[in-house]
TrEMBL record:
Alphabetic keyword roster: NAD, Oxidoreductase, Pyruvate
Name under which the protein is recorded: Glyoxylate/hydroxypyruvate reductase A
Pfam families: 2-Hacid_dh_C
Cited InterPro entries: D-isomer_DH_NAD-bd, NAD(P)-bd_dom_sf
Record organism: Salinicola corii
UniProt keyword Transport present: no
MF (Gene Ontology): NAD binding; oxidoreductase activity
Limits of the D-isomer specific 2-hydroxyacid dehydrogenase NAD-binding domain: 107-277
UniProt keyword NAD, yes or no: yes
């Protein structure tokens, strides 16, 4: 019988409460509680977190693992009380990557087949067939590799798109995918990207990477699919690129301020598709399974499979 593990949920109670039942079903030896329900803070060895407060980790001196409930960890890393010597993991399940691949593929098809133009024609009751391009003639540029980038690349190459990836190494990529790295590689990737997809984690190096300079290196009329982090995008530069025709359209799932303010110009822009940071998600059951596996690995003296490199930020 597995040893009982005491855990705490750090974040919005409305979000975190669902995980109690999931762990009871999937990993009953891990008992989670909201902070106000914790009886003995010193007995807590696991923290499950999402955008915790600056002091949220302080009451728990014996943490052995901190886990995000999703792929992102920026909100956790921003907490001043996050212990520096405790492993931090993110959720990196295959189902989450496949969900992202499906979402991105839909948006690639939307831009490739010009469904935005068809929708505009429908509003005008205008019957018009638009010119078509073979998928093999549409060049896709991916910013970011990893599990999600690999899943997206495989989904798009299966549809015969011409896919390339820019990553830190430019190596270990799916079959049939060209790799780029470094500043020069980013410029070369941009120059051959009819549709640019951003899947990057947020770091000091990637903040603001979607800017006027990068947009200017894309082929005229390129499209953007942005599913990374809101702070990657310089919003004014995107609006300018859409206005001058350098970009034809954009799909945006993440924003610097969420929820997106009602007065924001993105809401009414005819060339922007907005979704509410919903490209992919990890289910509470998936989180419970991955965290239970991580705690078991740590019991055997190993680090979690998806441990975060805090210096890199992912």
């Amino acid at each position: 019988m597995a040893r009982t593990i005491q855990g705490v949920l750090l974040g919005s109670p409305e979000i975190m409460r669902d995980y109690i039942a999931a762990f009871e079903r999937t990993a009953p030896h891990i008992r989670l509680a909201l902070p106000q329900e914790v009886v003995d803070p010193e007995a807590v060895t696991l923290a499950l977190a999402w955008d915790p407060g600056a002091d949220d980790f302080r009451p728990y001196p014996n943490l052995r693992l901190v886990s995000s409930i999703a792929a992102g960890v920026n909100g956790i890393l921003a907490s001043a009380s996050l212990p520096g010597d405790v492993p931090l993991m993110r959720i990196a399940g295959e189902s989450q990557a496949q969900m992202m691949a499906g979402f991105v593929t839909w948006h690639v098809l939307w831009h490739h087949r010009r469904f935005g133009d068809y929708l505009a024609n429908q509003r005008q009751r205008h019957w018009q067939r638009l010119p078509k391009r073979d998928a093999g003639d549409v060049r896709i540029g991916l910013l970011g590799a990893g599990k999600m980038g690999g899943a997206v690349a495989r989904a798009l190459t299966a549809l015969d798109y011409d896919v390339a990836i820019h990553s830190r190494s430019g190596r270990n990529l799916p079959a049939g995918v060209e790799g780029f790295s470094g500043t020069d590689g980013l410029e070369r990737l941009a120059a051959r990207s009819d549709i640019l997809i951003n899947l990057l984690p947020l770091t000091a190096e990637t903040r603001g990477i979607l800017n006027a300079e990068l947009f200017s290196r894309l082929p005229s009329g390129a499209a953007l699919v942005h599913v990374g982090r809101g702070e990657h995008l310089i919003e004014a530069d995107l609006l300018a690129a859409l206005e001058n025709g350098q970009l034809s359209a954009a799909s945006l799932d993440v924003f610097a301020i969420e929820p997106l303010p009602q007065a924001h110009p993105f809401w009414h822009h005819q060339r922007i598709v907005i979704t509410p940071h919903d490209a992919c998600d990890s289910t509470p059951n998936q989180v419970a399974q991955e965290v239970a596996e991580a705690m078991a690995r740590m019991g055997d003296g190993q680090l979690p499979a998806s441990v975060v490199d805090r210096h890199a930020g992912y």
